[in-house]
Design a protein that fits this description.
The protein has 363 residues and is an all-alpha fold. 63% of the residues lie in helices and 2% in strands. It contains 14 helices and 2 strands; from the N terminus they run H-H-H-H-H-H-E-E-H-H-H-H-H-H-H-H. A hairpin with an 8-residue loop joins strand 1 and strand 2. The C terminus is likely disordered.
Length: 363
């Protein structure tokens, strides 16, 4: 017995002392996500898009919407000022807002008398603001209304070709509403002409090119089926307000025959221009609806067609359901060998016996 009170341990000869087992470094290595769960887990672990990408998507989307609206409006104006469409707008306007037909009817008898005297001459219609000549033979064969309509068509052709300088005879307006309507009618007569029709071409082309550029950028910053849905929103947002505006005004406000002379003429011009322009907005609205429908259906089918496999599903299977025991993930085989080595080291201590009594030395 030592002074410390502890009994010294004396090893038996030939029995080696056991050392603690050496634990090797961890055999686990980082495993790629693709090897564990495949494409499904890779898609779930995909990093979220950055904020600047979403911000640019909204910026380009709003710019594309504004440019699309301007393009559709310019396309409607370009169509309304074309040769054929301008006749639909200007002829009723000249017949209603000017005194051309009234002047022709008032001078009809005088024109007939001149035509009888000068059968082979060309007679100028007086007091209509522009120079219109009609053959004497035609005056003798046409009635008052037919001659007035023919003169109105010729005035429309000259106004469209040369523009209106404000020479067409117009009655005085009565009331503030009629004054505004007269100004609107005069504006239509002055602005709807061949020169302005040509001037609208370049703004239309410019807006179309910018729309194409920003539309492509908007598509680039969208993802998956969101591209179709985003384009659909742009088309609908750019065309729906204008389409509703035209239809509501045509149905409730731009009524022909309502109000005074000039108000009725202005309303008729608005209706004609609105019907010519609404075609483009309706087409854009239909395209937007089709794109939205295709995007929603494609997105739903894409989600349903994916095979949803929960992560680590193989590790949850019972061992008896797999031949040869539970499956091992790559890299775990070495871990099993280390565990066996540790168990063998600890089993060596079970064979140790306590030392004999004579091996203990008493002080």
């Amino acid at each position: 017995m030592e002074p410390t009170g502890q009994m010294p341990f004396v090893a038996q000869p030939g029995v080696p002392l056991m050392q603690p087992p050496q634990i090797s470094p961890s055999p686990y290595q980082p495993v790629q996500l693709e090897s564990l769960e495949g494409e499904e887990f890779v898609e779930l672990a995909r990093p979220q898009p950055s904020h600047w990408r979403a911000d640019f998507k909204w910026v380009f989307g709003i710019i594309s919407m504004v440019l699309l609206f301007l393009t559709l409006a310019l396309a409607g104006a370009y169509r309304s000022t074309g040769p054929g469409a301008a006749r639909q707008v200007l002829t009723p306007l000249i017949q209603s807002a000017t005194e051309v037909e009234q002047v022709v009817r008032e001078n009809y008898q005088e024109l007939r008398s001149k035509a009888r005297k000068l059968k082979n001459a060309t007679i100028v219609i007086p007091d209509i603001g522009v120079t219109v000549s009609v053959k004497a033979v035609d005056i003798n064969t046409l009635s008052s209304s037919d001659l007035a309509n023919r003169v109105a068509l010729e005035v429309q052709r000259q106004v469209y070709s040369r523009g209106n300088a404000g020479n067409l005879p117009m009655e005085a307006a009565r009331g503030a509403g009629e004054e505004r309507a007269k100004a609107v009618s005069a504006t239509f007569l002055s602005e709807i002409n061949k020169d302005n029709h040509g001037l609208l071409l370049w703004p239309l082309v410019t807006c179309g090119v910018l729309l194409l550029a920003f539309g492509i950028l908007f598509i680039v910053f969208c993802n998956g089926w969101g591209r179709l849905i985003g384009l659909a929103i742009v088309f609908i947002a750019a065309s729906l307000p204008a389409s509703l505006f035209i239809r509501v005004n045509v149905e409730f406000f731009w009524k022909p025959g309502a109000g005074g002379l000039y108000k009725s003429a202005a309303h008729q011009a608005y209706r004609s221009i609105g019907s010519l322009s609404s075609v483009f907005f309706d087409i854009a609205l239909g395209v937007g609806a089709l794109l939205l429908l295709a995007g929603i259906i494609g997105n739903i089918l894409s989600k349903r067609s994916r095979e949803r496999v929960p992560p680590f599903v193989e590790l949850k299977r019972p061992a008896e359901a797999v031949a040869g025991g539970a499956p091992l993930e790559p890299g775990l085989e070495v871990a099993d060998e280390v565990e066996v080595t540790e168990q063998a080291g600890f089993q060596a201590f079970e064979d140790l016996q306590p030392p004999p009594g004579d091996a203990i030395k008493n002080p």
